[in-house]
Amino acid sequence: MITFGIMTLTMESENSYIKEIASLAESCEMEVFRFLPSDINPHTLQVKGKRFDSKAQCWLESERPIPSIIYDRCFYGEDEHSKQCLPIVSWLKSRNDITFLGYGLPNKLEIYKTLRNTGLVSYLPDTQSVSDTGIILKELATKKKIILKPINGSGGYSIYYLKKNDKTFHVKTEKHKKIISRIFPNEAKLLQWLKPLINQRDFLLQPYLELSNNELQPFDIRVLLQKSVRGVWGELGRGIRIGSTGGILSNLSAGGAVIAFTDWLSSLPPAKGEYIRQELDYILTNLPALLEKEFMPLFEIGVDIGIAKNGSIWILDVNSKPGRKVLLQTRPDLKEIIHMKPLLYGKYLSGTDPQERKNYYEKTLSH
Question: Cross-referenced InterPro entries, in alphabetical order (predicted)?
Answer without folding.
Answer: ATP_grasp_subdomain_1 (IPR013815), YheC/D (IPR026838)
